[in-house]
Amino acid sequence: MKFVLASYGSRGDVEPCVAVGRELLRRGHEVRLAVAPDMVGFVESAGLAAVGYGPDAREWQDVHHAFMAQLSRPWKIRDLRRLWRENRALMSRYLAEAKTTLIAEDADLLLTGPLGEDAAANVAEYHDIPLATLHFVPMRANGQVSPSVPAALQRSATKFGEWVQWRVLYKKAGDRQRRDLGLPQTTFPVPRRIVERGSLEIQAYDEVWFPGLEAEWAQSDGRRPFVGTLTMEMPTDADEEVASWIAAGTPPIYFGFGSIPVELVESAADVLAIITEACVQLGERALVCSGWSDFSELPHSDNVKVVPALNHAAIFPTCRAVVHHGGSGTTAAGLRAGVPTLILSTWAEQALWGAQVKRLRIGTARRFADMTRESLVADLRTILDPQYAVRAREIATRMAKSAESVTAAADLIENEAGLNHLR
């Protein structure tokens, strides 16, 4: 069978599709990925064919993050308008290129991540092929994400948010894409169309994070199955060096920032200084994964090691605790390793994982912008309390293993495409 996997965004958005794509390729299927241009090299390094569409993920992410930060300074109307126009221009380019890039007329199924649902849904409708989605957090209306909020209010708020996002961000550009495809304009948001079409919506996270969610969604007739977080656990060039450094001293605390450059919120020098000073005060070592941030020219002590990337699955179990931005993949890797977590979030989705970490009593969380040396020391003291490690190890036994998650997702996608042949 032939599968087209569309996953726009940074590595955290792309890796789950790559993990499933590699498994489908191993099973003998034809697989092609459509990703942001700056993610093509990553996909190809994993052994899959890829084509780029839209602007670079880094470009769009920086503009979007700057716009969200500017909302806290609404009196600077000119800057807000400029960033809004830039964001809309990038959106239009993304949808225009999706129309010509997601070539799926002979595909058996089109799979998309959450950032690609709008464009992929239109293309799948045009070619009349099944659409399947990967969700890294609960995206459909439910009453389980925030226990302190009445369930009915949670559901209503989600649906209202979908409508506002569609009207403000997607409708105009989406209707242009649909017009170019010869499709009629829509009168309601993409999520509702996906649900009404009965598309498979794979929940790529563990149900342990949101107690009661699986039971609430049981009425979806199996269309929202949980498979666990999808990762590849790929080795990196730094793994052996990092393992040697860890073995030479006490287990370190991991600090990572993923695809969110710290420079968007604070200077890299100040962030590294805060980490170093906090760990000195606590008598701990720090392992810093810079990701998209630039720590390359900054001095650091023997008790602080900085690397550009590492294999979370291999390194996290050897750490005392993990501190990071709260990406879904990194959060799951920390819990799979059974170590306490501190999430320093910059986006709403990351704050959601922070709330769940606190809810499960395996760590704590705060906004990255609110971090100081004093707050970091206090938060680290909290999560280094032995009760958090005990709780994290217990929860880890309830998490799906990475290989199991990938196999389950590939099985679901194969079955969905096979059913289409029988219709």
Describe what this molecule looks like in 3D:
- By secondary structure, the chain is an alpha/beta fold.
- The chain has two domains: about 1-230 and about 400-420, Rossmann fold (3-Layer(aba) Sandwich); about 240-395, Rossmann fold, CATH 3.40.50.
- It is built from 16 helices and twelve strands.
- The protein has helices at about 10-25, 40-45, 55-70, 75-100, 115-125, 150-180, 190-195, 215, 240-245, 270-280, 310-315, 330-335, 350-360, 375-385, 385-395, 400-420; strands spanning about 1-5, 30-35, 50, 110, 130-135, 200-205, 255, 285-290, 305, 320-325, 340-345, 365.
- The strands form two sheets. It has a six-stranded parallel beta sheet with strand order 3-2-1-4-5-6, with helices on both faces. A six-stranded parallel beta sheet has the order 9-8-7-10-11-12, sandwiched between helices.
- Helix 13 (about 350-360) links the parallel strand 11 (about 340-345) and strand 12.
- Helix 3 runs antiparallel to helix 4 (about 75-100) and helix 10 (about 270-280) crosses helix 14 (about 375-385).
- The chain is globular.
Helical amount among residues, as a percent range?
40-55%
Give the H and E element order.
EHEHEHHEHEHHEHHEHEEHEHEHEHHH
Instruction: Spell out the CATH superfamily of the largest domain.
Output: Glycogen Phosphorylase B
DSSP summary, beta strand count: 12
**Quaternary structure of the protein:** single chain
CATH class of the largest domain: Alpha Beta
The number of domains is: 2
In brief, what are we looking at here?
With 423 residues, this protein is an alpha/beta fold.
